[in-house]
């Protein structure tokens, strides 16, 4: 029962954070919103790590790798997705992001000079076909007038950054870095990188005092970051990592449902078929990972 509650919490929270991003896009520069979100989450994570008396001292090399992880997962990743939210519904962005598992396996296979498993290739093809179905009109016309193609490119870049960051994160885990300490420093470096970006580009640290912005920010920090990570870590203590990863197949459904109600996302036949193809492709990839670990 506890495992089911934890798993449901992870899926529901991860699925709902995307719609919260919608209320972060507007008056405040996206980079500043990410700094607020990740910076506050880092404070919570450092506090939790210190409370549990987990290690926070690492070598210079480890700090470099944690900074690289933070730059990819907690900085450029969000940078691209927040900008994509200007052009696409957050539900569609979540669906594109769900292809990260396929992208990660392919990226790992390239330096190893080996082909991914047939199921991964098939899953990747299904995901690609799904994206084409969703954006078929924009791709046929190669038009950026609607902004959909721009949003697609930004979402793919964000997913690529997350996948690369996941590979760095795996390296950090193999090096024996504690998850909480690694995450705390990663968030710190990610927020620092975007802070430097804001200063160098002349953007201001403005703030939106309207209730939707404040509430969505607090939700992303406390629920979307701190509680979600705590639930996920607790879940990993009960089931295999590969089983927990199935959440990436389920949370886009939550995100799309919320997007339909709150963003008036309009479904078309091709979009529905595209989403089915992407989710089916993710399922194939997850089954492959699970079988390899067995």
Whole-number mean pLDDT: 83
Count of structural domains: 1
Strand content: under 5%
The geometry reads as globular
State the secondary-structure class. mainly alpha
Q: Please outline the major beta sheet.
A: none
Tally of individual helices: 13
Cα end-to-end separation: 24 Å
> What is the CA-atom radius of gyration, in angstroms?
19 Å
Low-confidence stretches: 290-294
State the helical fraction: over 70%
Question: What is the H/E string?
Answer: HHHHHHHHHHHHH
Number of strands: 0
Describe this structure in a few short sentences.
By secondary structure, the protein is mainly alpha-helical. The protein is 79% helix and 0% strand.
Walk me through what this model shows.
By secondary structure, the protein is mainly alpha-helical. It has one domain. Helices cover 79% and strands 0% of the residues. The chain is built from 13 helices and no strands. It has helices spanning 2-22, 30-51, 60-84, 90-97, 100-112, 118-134, 136-141, 148-174, 179-201, 211-236, 241-244, 247-262, 269-293. The longest helix has 27 residues, at 148-174. It is globular. Mean pLDDT is 83; it is low at 290-294.
């Amino acid at each position: 029962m506890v495992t089911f509650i934890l798993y449901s919490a992870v899926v529901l929270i991860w699925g709902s954070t995307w719609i919260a991003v919608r209320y972060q896009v507007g008056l405040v520069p996206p980079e500043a919103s990410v700094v607020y979100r990740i910076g506050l989450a880092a404070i919570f994570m450092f506090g939790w790590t210190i409370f549990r008396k987990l290690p926070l001292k690492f070598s210079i090399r480890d700090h470099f790798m944690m900074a690289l992880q933070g730059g990819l997962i907690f900085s450029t990743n969000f940078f691209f997705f927040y900008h994509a939210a200007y052009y696409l519904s957050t539900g569609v962005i979540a669906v594109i992001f769900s292809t990260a598992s396929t992208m990660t396996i392919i990226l790992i296979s390239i330096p190893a000079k080996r082909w991914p498993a047939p199921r991964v290739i098939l899953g990747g093809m299904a995901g690609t076909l799904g994206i084409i179905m969703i954006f078929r009109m924009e791709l046929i016309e190669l038009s950026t007038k609607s902004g959909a193609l721009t949003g697609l490119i930004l979402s793919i870049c964000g997913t690529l950054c997350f996948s690369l960051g996941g590979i760095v994160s795996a390296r950090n885990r193999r090096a024996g870095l504690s998850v909480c300490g690694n995450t705390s420093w990663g968030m710190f470096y990610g927020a620092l990188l975007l802070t430097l970006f804001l200063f160098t580009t002349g953007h201001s640290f403005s703030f939106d005092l309207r209730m939707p912005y404040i509430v969505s920010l607090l939700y992303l920090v406390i629920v979307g970051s701190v509680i979600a990570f705590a639930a996920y870590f607790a879940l990993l203590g009960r089931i295999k990592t590969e089983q927990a990863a199935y959440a990436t197949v389920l949370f886009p459904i939550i995100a799309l449902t919320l997007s339909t109600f709150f963003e008036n996302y309009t479904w078309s036949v091709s979009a529905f078929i595209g989403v089915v193809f992407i989710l089916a492709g993710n399922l194939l990839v997850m089954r492959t990972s699970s079988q390899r670990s067995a």
